[in-house]
Amino acid sequence: LPYVPHVPPMALQGKVTATTFVLERPRCVFDGHADASDTVWLAVAFANASATFRNPRSRADVPPYKQLPTARSYMTLETAAAAYSCSALNSPVLRVGGDTACRDQGRQDPCNGPLPSPGPYRVKFLLMGCRGPKAETRWSEPILLRRAVSPGTINPAPTRRGSDVVVIASILASLGAVLATAVLGALG
């Protein structure tokens, strides 16, 4: 399918973090291709591994989140295809990497766990029926996560103000005092 997944262009709080990113939910993309029993998956891969990603033949072959460090890809966000239809009234965005419970040892896949490094990552949506893949979107452009700042690089000392800032603040304070005196004089 010609659709290319992407991070929404509008300003959103937490659109890209150190372990997650937000995707625009594709609407009307799978209409005409999906049956009622079909599901849509999100394939997530390191950008340099997306070319070698192979669509699974069945749900049993879906690459799990816990193998991301070694397999370089996984699939997540299994959703009924109807949730992506033109008439669906769902959230306009999807958060990739937002399930911190995936770190628990007993958690079963498919899991939408925190992404382990800044990436970059590429994603695509895959429509799967009971006999395997039916349709897929194109891969996204590379998505690079934010990097956390090392606490050692933060300077705890306050920055010194330049002399022009001090002069401007002094002038404004003096003008405020003159204005207050004039107002009191006019009232008295």
From TrEMBL:
Top-level taxon of the source organism: Eukaryota
Coiled-coil region list: none
InterPro entries: Uroplakin-3 (IPR024831)
Keywords linked to the UniProt accession: Membrane, Transmembrane, Transmembrane helix
GO cellular component, one term: membrane
Residues passing through the membrane, by range: 165-187
Protein name: UPK3B protein
